[in-house]
């Protein structure tokens, strides 16, 4: 039986704006297609085997949550996560999880060390939080598609010169409200500020992650069975309209 193996990092600490709904949505889309779904979690102090999981998920959290997990993540998970990425695992990191992929998050005089897996820096600057509905244009290899969601972050993220964004902002703030970029895309890793949760409003993105994870495990990219996505498309259009209004 075909099976997707998902690992959630810090699911109790990093779960804001119902981001755990992304995992529920992935499970349902697998189950509707007869694909098995194996869920595992790794919290504080827990290590994991990089070859045992094909999709790794890290949700968002407030600053206090990031402080609570940042050092532990570097100590107990950086090496395994880097190995999994190099071996083709799919990774989705949202907001606080996205920020921790980079070198550091500068909070005034305090510096939270990141995983250093992606060339990006996040800083907290004076000024209002970047909040609101957002729409971006992304291309993951099958043409440009719209991704819609919600953002709420005080940090401003800046990509290194060699990094590619997840998408370009149509409406909203994105990484920093300045350069028109949103998130990061490196190999099979996607980092993004879009909450809401993200995947139920963007079913095609969920299917992209599922196919990528299954390709990593079985060696060939599957043609996923089409689903009746009338509700998902309506949710996407509603989120997109909210951003563009």
Keywords:
245 residues; six-stranded mixed sheet; alpha/beta; single chain; Rossmann fold; globular; 6 helices; four-stranded mixed sheet
The name of the CATH superfamily reads: Class I glutamine amidotransferase (GATase) domain
How far do the termini sit from each other?
Answer: 45 Å
Determine Rg (CA atoms, Å).
17 Å
- H-E order: EHEEHHEHEEEEEEEEEEHH
Give the total of beta strands.
14
Judged by helices, strands and strand pairing, the structural class is alpha/beta
Shape: globular
Low-pLDDT ranges = none
**Largest β-sheet summary:** 6 strands, mixed
What is the percentage of strand-forming residues? 25-35%
CATH class: Alpha Beta
Question: Which fold name fills CATH's third level, the topology?
Answer: Rossmann fold
CATH architecture: 3-Layer(aba) Sandwich
Count the DSSP helices.
6
| Adjacency order of strands in the biggest sheet | 2-1-3-4-14-13
Helix share, percent: 25-40%
Mean pLDDT: 95
Number of domains: 1
Show the helix and strand layout.
Elements: E1 3-9, H1 21-31, E2 36-42, E3 55-58, H2 63-76, H3 78-86, E4 90-94, H4 96-99, E5 104-107, E6 110-113, E7 120-124, E8 130-139, E9 144-153, E10 155-159, E11 167-171, E12 181-182, E13 184-186, E14 189-192, H5 203-218, H6 230-244
Parallel strand pairs: 1-2, 1-3, 3-4, 4-14, 5-7
Antiparallel strand pairs: 5-6, 7-10, 8-9, 8-11, 11-12, 13-14
